[in-house]
Amino acid sequence: LSGHEHTRTGLSQAALKQAFIDNLFYLQGRFPEVATPHDFYMAAAYTLRDRLLDRWVKTARSYKHSQARTVCYLSAEFLLGPHLVNNLINLGIMDTARAAGEELGLDLDAIVQEEEEPGLGNGGLGRLAACYLDSLATLEIPAIGYGIRYEFGIFDQTIENGWQVEHTDAWLRNGNPWEIYRPKLRFPVKFGGHTQQYDDDGHLRIRWIPDLVIEGRAYDTPILGYGVNNANLLRLWSAHATQSFNFQSFNTGDYYGAVRAKVEAETISKILYPNDEPEAGKELRLKQQYFFVSCSLQDMLRLQFNTTGSVEKFHEKYSVQLNDTHPAVAVAELMRLLIDDYKMTWDPAWEITRHTFGYTNHTLLPEALETWSVELFGRILPRPLEIVYEINRCFLDEVRMRFLGDESRVARMSIIDETQGRRVRMAHLATVGSFAVNGVAAMHSELVKSTILKDFHDLWPEKFHNVTNGVTPRRFIVAANPRLATLLTERLGSDAWVRDLSLLRSLEAHADDTGLHADWQAVKTAAKEDLSNWLGKHAGVTPDPASLFDVQAKRIHEYKRQHLNVLHIVTLYQRLKANPHLDLPPRTFIFGGKAAPGYFMAKLIIKLINSVAEVINRDPQINGTLRVAFMPDFSVKNGQRLYPAADLSEQISLAGKEASGTGNMKFSMNGALTIGTLDGANVEIREEVGDENFFLFGLTAEQAQRHQAQGYRPWEFRHESEELRSALDLIDSGLFSHGDKELFRPLTNSLIQYDPFMVLADYEHYVSRQSEVGHAWRDREHWNRMSILNVARMGKFSSDRSIRDYCEQIWKVQPAPADV
Ligand SMILES: CCc1ccc([C@H](C)CC(=O)N[C@@H]2O[C@H](CO)[C@@H](O)[C@H](O)[C@H]2O)cc1
Question: For residue 165, which of 707, 789, 638, 606 has the smallest C-alpha distance?
Answer without folding.
Answer: 606
